[in-house]
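Q&A log
Question type: sequence-to-structure
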Amino acid sequence: MEFPPFDHLRFYEGVHDVPLNISYSNIQGFTLGEFHKALPRNLDLNWTDERGPPQLRRLIARRTRVGIERILVTSGATEANFLANAALVRPKDRVVVDSPIYSPLRDCAAGLGGDVIPVGRDCKSGWSLDLDRIRKAAGGKAKLLVFANLNNPTSSAIGRSEMRELADIAEECNGYVLVDETFRELAFRRTPPSVAEFGPRMIALSTVTKLGGLGGLRVGWIVAHPQLIERCKAVKDYTTICGSSVSQELATWALRRWDFFRRRAKRILDGNRKLVEDALDRMPSLHGEIPTSGTVMFPHSDVNVTKLTQRLVRKYKTVIAEGRFFGLSDHFRLGLGGNVNELRRGLRNVRRALRDLV
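Response status: OK
Response body:
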């Protein structure tokens, strides 16, 4: 195995001390004190169920409308993605990957020796899914088809009819469809259905990280057919075995209050979208609609994105995420879910940097 460098993560590590980062995809962080609860004094710190505590799995199962036997709790969606890929992908297996996309969803299969075929979306078509190109790329033999719904970095959605067709393609290939659903519920009233509804070849990944602003918990999960869950569990025996009992207790608290977290996220995003809309009106070098769902947007830049990124970091102490991390070098990712004052300052710095470079 030889995994491609995780350039996006390495970039963040290098700019960790830069004061303003307006590229993050999470909702503004939630703190332990905001729960207004104390951890149970008898919480077992020595062991936790390898599949995840039953009460946590029941909450996840209820939200995805499946049985508890179809849930495996993981150390974030990142581990969930790795486990699913490691359970399925063998050297030279064909893996079709939506593009642009968060790089671990693209590169994990490559690290396992898979033959990864990206299928690009076009911003000129509103980032719509090209099912004909996906079917052609699958060629009747793809082991895995990989997507995010909502897409990261564009926040575009995959609807019910498209999901049915993806399930049909997987059936034709005797393969599987993996969908990272980390951002799915951030479509709010237009929430697309979970891929878990569309048959045994469908795999859903998610986490409390993004919508909840709870990234430090590192709690995610896989939803899949019980036989595939057992294969993923067998890989997990060699990664983390089980998760943190403390993190899983806090994730359980969060999922019991998930409607509160959804309302909180919507309130933050509604305000920030208006701020971004006003700011982009004064930046003619950037192009792209502000998505009505999700926490990120992916504008096209007439200015060289690498130069813009460097100018922002060095002169204005502000971070954006270059589009090359996701597969398109003339775009960049902008986060919509952070602190409103930091976002306002960051957008002002983007406007200044663009003027410097035009």
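Response note: The longest helix spans residues 258-280.
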